[in-house]
Design a protein that fits this description.
Elements lengths: L14 E3 L8 E3 L2 H10 L5 E6 L4 E5 L2 E5 L3 E5 L11 E6 L2 H6 L1 H16 L4 E5 L1 H4 L2 H13 L5 H14 L2 E2 H10 L4 H13 L3 E2 L11 E4 H12 L1
Helix pairs in contact: 1-5, 5-8, 7-8
Length: about 230
């Protein structure tokens, strides 16, 4: 298998996405790939992501073909993951293209899945149906905050409010700290960072707004223990 270099795009949106992963900035070839990579950064169980890591030499319909998947995702060993394999290769494709080119694409994908399975690597195809959700909207807020310098003093103030008074609406936290002189944007960035590093918990499958309830991680863990008792 050989690695492929992503060329400049003419019709697609190409670029480099800053990331929190060891591999560093992530090249992408479309807006949908960009969104998928952003979404992955919200998953604390993901250890690393490499885009277009290899070109596979496959036999499809009796003919030799080359195929480069979009991303290789590696999960942390001891953490929960959505697939049996620790590493999964992903193809990111719009649903309309999958439908229009079904006969040719799926033969190639089946061959890739079999090829990768022999190496203990999973293979999945994802579309906008699972990428462009409320969770993506939250990732677009949280991921940039994770990559910025942190305001330790402001974050300590947010944690103080939650530890003293329990779960609160995001709008209440923002208003309280703004009354104390904090800047609105700075408060929100600090909240997003704390959510991203899992010090604060909230429902990431619903849009984050002033009505979002945020909880200090230890209180959230206690609630889960009580619920499961």
């Amino acid at each position: 298998m050989r690695k492929r270099t992503i060329p400049p795009g003419h019709r697609s949106i190409t670029g480099l996405l800053p990331s929190r992963f060891p591999s560093g900035h992530l090249p992408f070839e479309s807006k949908l790939e960009h969104d998928f990579l952003t979404l992955l950064q919200l998953d604390h169980c993901v250890h690393d992501v490499v885009t277009q890591p290899v070109t596979l030499d496959l036999i499809v319909g009796g003919q030799r073909r080359s195929y480069t998947p979009d991303a290789l995702v590696t999960w942390h060993d001891a953490m929960e993951r959505p697939f049996p394999q620790r590493q999964v290769m992903f193809e990111v494709k719009p649903l309309t293209i999958l439908r229009e080119q079904r006969s040719s694409l799926w033969a190639k994908y089946r061959a890739a899945k079999q090829h990768l399975a022999r190496q203990g690597i999973g293979f999945r195809v994802v579309t906008e149906r699972t990428i462009r959700t409320s969770r993506l909207g939250n990732a677009e807020l949280i991921v940039p905050a994770l990559l910025q310098p942190h305001d330790n003093e402001l974050e300590a103030g947010i944690i103080r409010l939650l530890r003293q008074r329990g779960p609160k609406r995001l709008g209440e936290i923002r208003s309280k700290l703004e009354d104390e002189g904090a800047i609105r944007g700075a408060v929100l960035e600090s909240v997003y960072n704390l959510i991203g590093i899992r010090w604060l918990e909230c429902d990431l499958d619903r849009p984050i707004t002033d009505d979002t309830i945020v909880t200090w991680w230890a209180d959230a863990a206690m609630e889960e223990m009580i619920a499961g008792a």
